[in-house]
Amino acid sequence: MADTETLVRELADRAELADLVARHSLWIDEGRYDETDRLFTEDVTVASVHGEARGIAALVELARSGHDRYQRTMHSKSNLVVEVDGAVATVRAHDVAIFVIDDGTEAVAAGIHRYRARRTGDGWRFDRLEVIPVALTEALDRAL
Question: Is-contact 92 114, C-beta < 8 A?
Answer without folding.
Answer: yes
